[in-house]
């Protein structure tokens, strides 16, 4: 199934759902998929819709053409800054915040398939995802200060955690585009493959994740996020609460039975088990 995030026959954001995988594609190839106007809100709505769809168990974000996303459309930004339309400009930052928050809060894995350059907000859209695959023609850059601006879209949160504070400062300060191989070396992406291999691998990863039990994946995603601001003891408490929720789930029963019976498990849709709460030992973040 293929549709647009806005409901228009043509849009800057396309959504396709197949085999439990939702693919959101940025669709402004003539401008390297640079953000303009309502495009950020279209992305947010698309991600939120995929997150709420129980038939979608994994998500891919990618771009049309030779770029993943060039960040903001500079001609559009120029008009806002020249006319000092500051409220409209700040609204763009809020829309980016909404997108990054929707990816982080989605209870399912999100894979960025970085098919080409990802700059500025486009870079941080990719870095907000749980997993990142990159074409060998891709590059990532915190290019904001080239036009006198500051990182947004959650980049100041993601980058130091991925590469450490010193390397993050280097990326922010020098604003260079980093080639795919170096991105893999420093931990910005999980894997680099050829352009022809990128989408097949992204779909293979997403379909594999879509076949897995949803509750352990959801809790593991939350565990990764919590671990960055939690103590060792807090994470042990979280593990206990998360494991208890899994013990009580239908997928755990199916999983152990399938193992004993020497067959492949058949995990069902979301089982509705509650996430561990702060009172159960989580951090509440």
Description:
By secondary structure, this protein is of the alpha/beta class. It contains eleven helices and ten strands. The chain has helices at 39-52, 74-82, 86-105, 121-127, 155-163, 165-174, 180-186, 195-210, 214-227, 232-247, 250-260; strands spanning 2-4, 13-18, 21-26, 58-63, 110-114, 117-119, 131-135, 139-141, 177-179, 191-193. The strands form two sheets. A seven-stranded mixed beta sheet has the order 1-2-3-4-5-7-10, sandwiched between helices. The chain has a three-stranded mixed beta sheet with strand order 6-8-9. Helix 1 (39-52) links the parallel strand 3 (21-26) and strand 4 (58-63). Helix 5 (155-163) packs across helix 6 (165-174) and helix 9 packs antiparallel against helix 10. The longest helix is centred in the middle third of the chain and has 20 residues, at 86-105. The chain is globular and about 65 Å long.
The topology string of helices and strands comes to EEEHEHHEEHEEHHEHEHHHH
* Tally of helical runs: 11
N-to-C CA distance: 35 Å
Structural class designation: alpha/beta
Proportion of residues in β-strands = 15-25%
The 3D shape can be described as globular
Largest sheet: 7 strands, mixed
List low-confidence stretches: 270-285
Averaging pLDDT over every residue, what do you get?
91
Report the helical percentage: 40-55%
CA-atom Rg in angstroms: 20 Å
- Main-sheet strand order equals 1-2-3-4-5-7-10
């Amino acid at each position: 199934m293929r549709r647009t995030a806005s409901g228009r026959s043509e849009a800057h954001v396309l959504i396709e759902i197949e085999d439990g995988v939702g693919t959101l594609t940025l669709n402004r190839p003539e401008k390297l998929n640079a953000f303009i106007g309502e495009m950020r809100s279209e992305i947010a709505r698309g991600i939120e819709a995929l997150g709420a769809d129980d038939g979608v168990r994994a998500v891919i974000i990618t771009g049309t053409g030779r770029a993943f996303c060039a960040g903001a459309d500079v001609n559009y930004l120029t008009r806002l800054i020249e006319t000092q339309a500051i409220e409209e400009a700040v609204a763009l930052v809020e829309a980016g915040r909404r997108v990054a928050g929707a990816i982080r809060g989605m209870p399912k894995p999100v894979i960025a398939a970085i098919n080409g350059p990802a700059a500025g907000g486009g870079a941080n859209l990719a870095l907000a995802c749980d997993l990142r695959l990159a074409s060998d023609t891709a590059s990532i850059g915190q290019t904001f200060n080239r036009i006198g601006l500051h990182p947004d879209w959650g980049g100041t949160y993601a980058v130091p955690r991925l590469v450490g504070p010193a390397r993050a400062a280097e990326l922010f300060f020098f604003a260079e585009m980093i080639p795919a191989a170096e991105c893999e070396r420093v931990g910005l992406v999980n894997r680099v493959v050829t352009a022809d291999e990128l989408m097949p691998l992204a779909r293979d990863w997403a379909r594999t994740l879509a076949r897995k039990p949803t509750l352990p994946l959801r809790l593991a995603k939350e565990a990764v996020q919590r671990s960055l601001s939690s103590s060792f003891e807090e994470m042990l408490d979280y593990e206990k609460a998360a494991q208890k929720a899994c013990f009580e789930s239908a997928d755990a029963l199916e999983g152990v039975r399938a193992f004993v019976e020497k067959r492949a498990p058949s995990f069902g849709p979301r089982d509705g088990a509650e996430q561990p709460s702060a009172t159960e030992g989580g951090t509440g973040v």
